[in-house]
Design goal:
This protein has 671 residues and is of the alpha/beta class. Helices cover 46% and strands 12% of the residues. It is built from 28 helices and 19 strands. It has an 8-stranded mixed beta sheet with strand order 12-11-10-13-14-15-16-17, with helices on both faces. The mean pLDDT is 96. The structure holds (2S,3S)-3-hydroxy-2-methylbutanoyl-COA (T1G). (2S,3S)-3-hydroxy-2-methylbutanoyl-COA (T1G) is lined by residues 21-22, 24, 57, 60-65, 97, 99-101, 104, 123-124, 127, 129, 131-133, 135, 270, 273.
Length: 671
């Protein structure tokens, strides 16, 4: 199939890209663009040119699958220069998304029109890169330094209307007649002639650069690409001659492309899309229709889960046992929405519409006609079995019964119903209306259409859904658990909470094991007998240090819940170590990595070999979207290849940790 064709409309030649699914700039597309522009420039009867795309979108960027491959086809920059220097006006006609190399191609066209629903952006920073096709030098020449800096450093697309406001597009076209509108627009440009972007001046104040760095310092910690993008914008402002700025861009682009961060973030781009695919099930395999959703439990999780569905336009019935808890839960949902409305995320009308779609109830029977019911009650097997037994009697045939359990056995819960095939785990992460990850737990009886529906509904409510098998803690929590015990042991041997947590935050994690423990609450699951002190946790609870909730745990917390190292906490650890007759010694940061992060990797390989995850990249998606593992390290499994399986296995053995066969297998060269 030819991915680029041309169509002649009297004195206008239309170059049409058709490279499904997203018209990426694969080598054969670049070849087609080059041939098309040569044809237009070589024909004297042609006075103007239109570039547009078939399919659902304009060019969505370079073909990421070609990165790191031997170069094929014409050089992208050369094709761009031919367009920009053309002696005949070129109009880019944009629908869907003009992203990355796609927007860079539109920027070398002399005029741009777009349909109102179009989105335009340079998201390369999300791939650990920057716009390497002149985007960092041409965009500021069109929209000014401020807007350009924001667009490349944050990577978020803008709407067609905003693009019109900033002069990035010259006119909005009709949604249904873009092709015809573009030809008319191009014909109207003949008299005006070409308008090469390279000749436009860069306007605006570079103060934005430092402001963006300050505002995003926490978010950008450890990342290289945002800063490289801003250096290129600074170069655009500093160098009126575009070639000088392009040199800076090319240098920065090549060093990012050669780095490990870009490889990790490109890996994650595909890993996230791969996670949505269920092994053995076709993309269009049958699903059940979900129109009405029920949530049991109006606590933190139940409330957050309900908001996801209300945001996506589903009516939700939320059930509690006690009026007071129901009122509190519904009140929290309203408070959260009103807070978001203040930040401009929702209009007050939208808030009222969503609250109107929420039906509070004290009766499980009100869930009888729901298509999907998600249980988010107290984490006890008996309580869950009781609830599912009741749902089995109440809910209509074909309703999907889901549990938000974080650890418990979905098969055992399903067995408490007469329809285990309709039972699935839908494990949300707190805060459930914010965290993107959803572990969809496939029980041994879960029907394929139930699994496919749960995965699809996850995407519909804005989650990244990953299939997990039934085991204690599924993928994420099971791996997380393997770091807690070694972390406690390292405390006894001489490390401090701050030292261990710093290793994790320096690594790029949002928090370390002890900061997380203080956030979750030390007394969760505590036996509540202060006289019984068998573990460090007992010692802290006995001393009334429960964590952030009462302002003291492994750290002391101020009213803003900012933690600082605590002398009393260290004293408790010292005292406990003394009673345990454990010698104190210097602990290196590397040892902390080996004894707290390597075991998580090892557990990931066990999960893989047991088939509790479909693929290694799913495990990485879980850690990126559920636990804040730094995306520039690509997730634990990807990182284990960077770190080296040999090094990891050697350290695990040295520390007496049984090595997963799938990890050990990485040592022996493939036959
Ligand atoms: N290259 C190759 N494949 C791509 C692709 C791309 N740029 N974009 C998407 N795909 C595949 C994707 O893997 C999936 O495949 C299918 O298309 C549908 O994607 C020089 C260096 C456009 C908003 O970062 O953001 O230009 O799983 O599921 O939800 O400066 O795709 O079906 O086999 O995401 O409708 C910059 C990336 C590149 C945009 C559509 N561009 N794409 O979302 O579909 S770097 C981007 C997206 C660059 C230059 C630089 C989204 C989308 P499969 P999908 P969607």
């Amino acid at each position: 199939m030819q991915s680029v064709i041309t169509e002649r409309h009297d004195d206008v030649l239309v170059i049409i890209v058709n490279n499904p699914p997203v018209n990426a700039l694969s080598w054969h597309v670049r070849q087609g663009l080059s041939d098309g522009i040569d044809q237009a420039l070589g024909d004297d009867d042609i006075k103007a040119i239109v570039l547009r795309c078939d399919g659902s979108t304009f060019i969505a960027g370079a073909d990421i699958t070609e990165f790191g491959q031997p170069p094929q086809g014409p050089d992208f920059l050369a094709v761009l220069n031919t367009f920009e220097r053309a002696a005949k006006p070129i109009v880019a006609a944009i629908h869907g998304t003009a992203l990355g190399g796609g927007l860079e191609t539109a920027l070398v066209c002399h005029y741009r029109i777009a349909v109102p629903t179009a989105k335009l952006g340079l998201p390369e920073v999300k791939l650990g890169l920057l716009p390497g096709g002149g985007g960092t030098q041409r965009l500021p020449r069109v929209v000014g330094v401020e807007q350009a800096a924001i667009m490349v450093a944050l990577g978020e697309p803008i709407s067609a209307q905003k693009a019109l406001d900033f002069g990035l597009v010259d006119a909005l076209a009709n949604e249904v007649s873009l092709a015809a509108d573009a030809i008319l627009f191009a014909r109207a440009c003949i008299a005006k002639g070409p308008r090469p972007t390279r000749e436009r001046a860069v306007a605006g104040d570079i103060a934005i650069i430092e402001r963006l760095k300050t505002e995003n310092a926490r978010k950008w910690k450890g990342f290289e690409a945002p800063y490289a993008n801003l250096r290129c914008i600074a170069a655009a402002a500093a160098h009126p001659v575009i070639e000088d700025g392009l040199k800076v861009e090319s240098h920065e682009f090549r060093s990012l492309m050669a780095g490990s961060q870009a490889k990790a973030q490109q890996y994650m781009f595909f890993a996230e899309r791969q996670a949505a695919k269920i092994e053995g099930l076709a993309k269009d395999s049958p699903q059940r229709e979900i129109k009405k959703v029920g949530v049991i439990g109006a606590g933190t999780m139940g409330g957050g889960i309900s908001m996801n569905f209300l945001n996506a336009g589903f009516p939700v019935t939320i059930v509690e046992m006690v009026q007071e808890n129901l009122d509190r839960g519904v009140g929290v949902i309203r408070k959260n929405y009103e807070a978001s409305a203040v930040k401009g995320r929702f209009t007050s009308e939208k808030v009222e519409a969503m609250m109107g779609a929420l039906t509070p109830s004290l009766a499980l029977e009100d869930l009888a006609d729901c298509d999907l019911v998600i249980e988010a009650v107290y984490e006890s097997m008996d309580v869950k079995k009781d609830v599912f037994g009741k749902l089995d009697a109440i809910c209509k045939p074909g309703a999907i019964l889901a549990s938000n359990t974080s650890y418990l056995d979905i098969n055992e819960i399903a067995a408490s119903t007469s329809r285990p095939e309709d039972v699935v785990g839908m494990h949300f992460f707190s805060p459930a209306n914010v965290m993107k990850l959803l572990e969809v737990v496939r029980g041994e009886s879960t029907a394929d259409d139930v699994l496919a529906t749960a995965m699809a509904i996850g995407k519909k409510i804005g989650k990244v859904a990953v299939v997990a098998g039934v085991c204690h803690g599924f993928i994420g929590n099971r791996m997380l658990a393997t770091r807690q015990e070694p972390a406690m042991q390292l405390l006894l041997e001489g490390a401090t909470p701050a030292q261990i947590d710093d290793v994790h935050t320096d690594f790029g994690m949002p928090m370390g094991p002890f900061q997380m423990r203080d956030l979750a609450g030390m007394d969760i699951g505590w036996h509540r007998d202060p006289s019984k002190v068998e573990t460090i946790r007992d010692a802290f609870c006995a001393a009334g240090r429960f964590g952030q909730k009462n302002g003291k745990g492994f750290y002391d917390y101020d009213e803003k819940r900012v933690g600082t190292p605590s002398a009393e906490a260290l004293a408790i650890i010292e005292e406990f170590r003394a009673t345990s007759n454990l010698p104190k010694r210097e602990i290196s940061d590397q040892e902390i990595v080996e004894r707290t992060i390597y075991p998580m990797v090892n557990e990931g390989y066990k999960i893989l070999e047991e088939g509790k995850a479909q693929r290694a990249s799913d495990i990485d998606v879980v850690w990126i979207y559920g636990y804040g593992w730094p995306i520039y390290r690509g997730g634990p499994m990807f990182w284990s290849d960077i770190e080296g399986a040999g090094k990891i296995v050697e350290a695990l053995e040295r520390n007496g940790t049984p090595v997963a066969a799938a990890l050990r297998a990485k040592l022996s060269p493939p036959h």
